[in-house]
Design goal:
The protein is mainly α. The chain is 84% helix and 2% strand. The protein is built from 4 helices and 2 strands; from the N terminus they run αββααα. The chain has helices at 8-11, 25-149, 153-161, 168-187; strands at residues 18-19, 22-23. The protein has a two-stranded antiparallel ribbon with strand order 1-2.
Length: 188
């Protein structure tokens, strides 16, 4: 029995020895068995290759489907990112607008407070001017009172002897001098 490593070109070149009735049947049978074995192996190998091919095509199809899904998902994510960007932009605009409104409110409140302070200042200044006028008047009355007291003792005695109506200005001065004197005690 000879070992056959069959290749297509070898099959046409196989030679059998001649026997009485043609080719040696034993050699032909052995050759056919070997060919059958080789064909069976080739068919098995072909089936394995076809099976691998089907499996690889299936995996390729799955990978292509997965890739298609990933591309669709990526497109969805891109759209979502754009939506999120737009929302963030709008939110930031709202925050800025709100901050501007709050800032304007603070400025308006500060201006209103300033106007109130200025009005209070004007009121205090007016009271101060009124106080100055009254104080000047009081001082003037006080000075006049002091000047009257500087008159001779005789004139005063005359006035005491004569019943006269009391001069209101003198009463105001006396009242004012008494008040000043009392205030001096209170502040001590």
């Amino acid at each position: 029995m000879r070992a056959l490593a069959l290749r297509p070109e070898d099959i046409t070149e196989v030679e059998f020895s001649r026997s009485f009735r043609g080719y040696n049947e034993e050699e032909v049978r052995e050759f056919l068995e070997e060919v059958a074995t080789q064909v069976a192996l080739l068919l098995e190998e072909r089936e394995k290759v076809l099976q691998e091919n089907r499996e690889l095509r299936r995996k390729l199809s799955e990978q292509e489907e997965y890739l298609r899904k990933m591309q669709l998902q990526l497109e969805e994510w891109k759209k979502q990112v754009e939506v999120e960007k737009e929302l963030a932009r709008r939110e930031s605009q709202m925050i800025v607008k709100e901050a501007q409104l709050r800032a304007q409110k603070i400025v308006d409140e500060a201006l209103e407070r300033k106007r109130e302070i200025e009005a209070a200042y004007r009121g205090l200044f007016e009271k101060y001017r009124l106080f100055q006028i009254r104080f000047k008047s009081l001082l003037q009355t006080f000075i006049e009172s002091i000047e009257k007291e500087g008159l001779s003792e005789e004139f005063r005695e005359e006035k005491r002897e004569e019943p006269q109506e009391k001069d209101e200005a003198t009463e105001v001065v006396r009242f004012s001098l008494k008040d000043l004197h009392d205030e001096g005690r209170m502040s001590k």
